[in-house]
Amino acid sequence: MSTTTRRVAEAEARAMLRALELAGLGVRGANPLVGAVLLAPDGTVLGEGHHRGAGTPHAEPAALADAGDRGHDPRGGTMVVTLEPCNHTGRTGPCSEALISAGVARVVFAADDVNGPAAGGASRLRAAGVGCVGGVEAEASKHLNERWTASVVAGRPFVTLKSAQSLDGRVAAVDGSSQWITGPEARADGHRLRALADAVLVGSGTVRDDDPRLTARGGASGEEPAAGSGPALRVAMGLTPVPSEAAIRGAGFVHLPTRDVPAALDELFARGVRHLLVEGGPRIAAAFLRAGVVDELVSYVAPVVLGDGAPAFPDLGIDSLAAAPRWSLDDAGGPAVRRLGADVRLHLRPPPPGEQAEPVPVSDAGRPDPR
Amino acid sequence: MSTTTRRVAEAEARAMLRALELAGLGVRGANPLVGAVLLAPDGTVLGEGHHRGAGTPHAEPAALADAGDRGHDPRGGTMVVTLEPCNHTGRTGPCSEALISAGVARVVFAADDVNGPAAGGASRLRAAGVGCVGGVEAEASKHLNERWTASVVAGRPFVTLKSAQSLDGRVAAVDGSSQWITGPEARADGHRLRALADAVLVGSGTVRDDDPRLTARGGASGEEPAAGSGPALRVAMGLTPVPSEAAIRGAGFVHLPTRDVPAALDELFARGVRHLLVEGGPRIAAAFLRAGVVDELVSYVAPVVLGDGAPAFPDLGIDSLAAAPRWSLDDAGGPAVRRLGADVRLHLRPPPPGEQAEPVPVSDAGRPDPR
């Protein structure tokens, strides 16, 4: 290998690590997290990009645009990207065509695209004479998107569960009072979550008790969605009738009179929902957790101690600590742990599918290690 | 007021704000949080200091030492400090004498010292011809130490409550398994808390069930106490007998066979305990919370969801959200919200004594604002 070839190979390896870092800046949801770095033929970085969520440019066009903004010519360059470029006209055009038009000479990607309608980008690029290498850092890219991949493979929406609770895990006090456990900053953040999703779902009992609107109103931060914007669909799930005067009603309202989580997800997927935000109440939250379909959890924790009251996640059927799934702090989309006014926001991802809970450690004597 | 006098006055005002900031770097416990800034006669900063916890130098000697390290002469200078200098030989000598010996000409302090044995510093300084001005930013200083002041006035130890729980507020699963909810980094941090306190207390039921040692072993961080170091006293509280072979026994062990929190605190105060760490179990934690004597709460939250099991703080007698005390994130001693390995550590202070819980907000229509 010549010195130049080695230098370029090293630049591509560095670019892939950087692209993975960029991917992690994106927001989980209907689309996978993807990052991209455009290199000149000599390995110089020309542009960087990542996908910021459904309806915004994919990572490769974002990196091409960044290179353009910097006054760089992409022709003959190498696009290093964490996912096989798409070959699909969705809310944006196919990335394969964008790369061909831009005159990119080579594409290095990490994971294959498993999303049926979008796959096939590498074949299209090769047919157009663009050199294509896949599988570089594929495991890291797959790890970043394993829950998204699982939802695509299963043909169901990506599910975000949102919860607002006291420090001791209560969503309401003994008398049922629950407004407001968290402060205005946390609630505004919750409204931002709504604006990102295709649908927001609550239990029909919650509709009866709290009469939520489920719109995405503006809040304290400057990054608010426009007033009145919101998810395409507002869903009440469960057997409780939805009153005719309920605030959730109107265009985009759906009542799914079922307690069956997979059936509800099938119905919503058929209606085009690719990202579902589940907001509770606790029985609905627990049903989605039990079904193993929660792909991320956003938990707003208020520094209030209630001692008693409705638990955030009742009846999960977990008997021992060893059997409890270990979630992990997830920095995709921003720091996993954030202060929001007086409250704390945790962003968590579940353990990888099939991963066992950790066994309880025991001391040499075979009994739990005394504290 | 001459330009020079105004400049010096402004320097003193700035120095007091800086001293308050420095005070907040300290660690809560047996002593108050105090910060100090030494100024030259022209208002130049000569040195800074803060009190780092029981057994370490007070803020004023720390600022004098810092000035010395920087090669500055304290003579004729002004000490700006957030608490009246002490007049008491405790674990360190009286600050009043240190300031007089150092030739400091003027002392500006915020809050009066309410601690009987240590008070009187200002009188002593004035008697020695040192100019003394008190009450500058006194409210901010009092706010910083209001819980410490309350404990001193009540003649009881400052109480730190430590808790390790699942995201949903459980300290054990349904089968009783609780080791380990949190990971090694959180446990090591808990051992550091032990090393700072004069005494560590658990319920006698916890002694029977878990057989804790309550020593302060070293952990993952570099800032560990020496191996084998620990609190002076290990306390079991409650009516359950402590087995003769219990690991908690040995020099420094006390059993307080009572469920009465004030009585236990009286007894520990009489034994010289000025900082008590309460570690649980949940019934003990709740008893201290109900008694209103918890001065800070350190909560380790593991990203595991149990759904059921022993609650962290049972039976607080709080019926409504409006009646629940609102704690607040406390940055004294370091960021209030920290990641420790896979877990999150929250450092909280209770609402000021006598402060009401926030009323439940209602909409214009007089009913809870719908979400």
Automatic annotation (TrEMBL), chains A, B:
NADP(+) binds at residues 164, 180, 210, 281-287. PANTHER family: 2,5-DIAMINO-6-RIBOSYLAMINO-4(3H)-PYRIMIDINONE 5'-PHOSPHATE REDUCTASE (PTHR38011:SF7), DIHYDROFOLATE REDUCTASE FAMILY PROTEIN (AFU_ORTHOLOGUE AFUA_8G06820) (PTHR38011). Its EC number is 3.5.4.26, 1.1.1.193. Residues 222-231 have a biased composition (Low complexity). Pathway: Cofactor biosynthesis; riboflavin biosynthesis; 5-amino-6-(D-ribitylamino)uracil from GTP: step 2/4; Cofactor biosynthesis; riboflavin biosynthesis; 5-amino-6-(D-ribitylamino)uracil from GTP: step 3/4. GO terms for molecular function: 5-amino-6-(5-phosphoribosylamino)uracil reductase activity; diaminohydroxyphosphoribosylaminopyrimidine deaminase activity; zinc ion binding. Its cofactor is Zn(2+). GO terms for biological process: riboflavin biosynthetic process. This is Riboflavin biosynthesis protein RibD. Keywords: Hydrolase, Metal-binding, Multifunctional enzyme, NADP, Oxidoreductase, Riboflavin biosynthesis, Zinc. Zn(2+) binds at residues 58, 86, 95. The lineage of its organism: Bacteria, Bacillati, Actinomycetota, Actinomycetes, Micrococcales. It comes from the Bacteria. Residues 10-123 form the CMP/dCMP-type deaminase domain. Substrate binds at residues 178, 194, 206, 214, 217, 279. PROSITE patterns: CYT_DCMP_DEAMINASES_1, CYT_DCMP_DEAMINASES_2. Residues 48-75, 208-231, 346-371 are annotated as: Disordered. In the N-terminal section; belongs to the cytidine and deoxycytidylate deaminase family. Binds 1 zinc ion. The active site is at residue 60. Converts 2,5-diamino-6-(ribosylamino)-4(3h)-pyrimidinone 5'-phosphate into 5-amino-6-(ribosylamino)-2,4(1h,3h)-pyrimidinedione 5'-phosphate. The keyword Transcription does not apply. It catalyses: 2,5-diamino-6-hydroxy-4-(5-phosphoribosylamino)-pyrimidine + H2O + H(+) = 5-amino-6-(5-phospho-D-ribosylamino)uracil + NH4(+); 5-amino-6-(5-phospho-D-ribitylamino)uracil + NADP(+) = 5-amino-6-(5-phospho-D-ribosylamino)uracil + NADPH + H(+).
